[in-house]
Design goal:
About 85% of the residues lie in helices and about 0% in strands. With about 80 residues, it is an all-alpha fold. The chain has one domain (about 5-70). The longest helix is centred in the middle third of the chain and has 48 residues, at about 25-70. It starts with a helix and ends in an 8-residue tail after the last helix.
Length: about 80
């Protein structure tokens, strides 16, 4: 690795930390945005799980109905 690159990254990180020290509201907003992003991700995952379970339940309920109806079909009579 290039030692100049690590020095530049270190300077950038120190600059960001210095800005966040002088602006605590910006740090609080960044943290709250990450928390909101995590909450939205969690809610989406749980919603998808619930929808999958509901889909399976509907499929199983409808499959029983389909089986019952399949047995009730009367073949056509030819005269």
């Amino acid at each position: 690795m290039n030692p100049g690159l690590t020095e530049e990254v270190g300077k950038t990180v120190r600059g960001i930390v210095h800005v966040l020290e002088s602006q605590p509201l910006a740090l609080a907003m960044i943290i709250s945005n990450f928390l909101l992003l995590g909450f939205v991700w969690y809610a989406t995952v749980e919603n998808n799980r619930q929808r999958a379970k509901l889909g399976e339940a509907v499929f199983h309920a409808e499959s029983e109905t389909r089986q019952l109806l399949a047995r009730c079909v009367v073949p056509e009579r030819k005269p």
